Amino acid sequence: MKIPAPVKPMPSGEGVECMTNKDSKNMIFIRAKDMDGHSYINDLNTIMDIELKIFPKDAFSRNSYRNLMKNDNALIYMVMMDDKIVGHGTAMLTLLRNKKKKGRIYSIGVLKEYRRQGVAKRLLRVMEDWLIQNKAEYITLETHEHDSHVIKFYEKSGYVKTEDLPDYYEGANGIRMRKTFTV
Q: How many folded domains does the chain comprise?
């Protein structure tokens, strides 16, 4: 798959970033939209295809992604390796009543055959950097309570469990995790 052409030219460094993983394979991070709201990935089918492959039971709806792509405070990244989309991540920035900003990681997913290659770690870092640049004081996320490898991944990245979430997922409990930053 070719990198989608932006609807308008990208300023240097905005929209597409290229990184190298531990196996020296290029990881290309593509923003679904730029800071002015112009779409880089015009086709919601691209996003939905990878979402359904990674999360067949807990996938976001097409309408949810459509709304996220319209939201100036949301960030969606797609990750390409070997000329195909292999993962994605979604984050959002929220202004709270006390005027502080909170970040939230909605989703990070990588196709099975591309896991354990540093893709999720880099993807999390890209989203955290964006949230920090936008003055988030902390970031929250939710995951299944029995998904021990995912919980360990987030703990290694500085997240701590803050709350049990009974029946958060269809028929399954979740946990909320948080990472706080000094602003």
A: 1
Whether 84 maps to a domain, the answer reads yes
Query: What are the 10-residue block averages of pLDDT along the chain, 183 residues in total?
Result: 34 43 59 53 70 78 76 82 83 89 90 87 89 92 89 94 86 90 67
For 101-126, letters b (16+ CB in 10 Å) and e give bbbbbbbbbbbeebeebbbbbbbbeb
User: Is 70 inside any structural domain?
Assistant: yes
pTM summary value: 0.77
Q: Is residue 46 a contact partner of residue 86, using CB atoms and an 8 Å limit?
A: no
158 assigned to some structural domain: no
Distance between CA 26 and CA 24 in Å, rounded?
A: 6
Residue recorded with tokens 């309570």: 145
Question: In sequence order, what DSSP letters do the residues of 21-61 get, joined into one string?
Answer: -TTS-EEEEEESB-TTS-BSS--HHHHHHHHHHH-TTTPPP
CATH number of the domain at 35, please: 3.40.630.30
- Do 36 and 29 form a contact (C-beta atoms < 8 A)? no
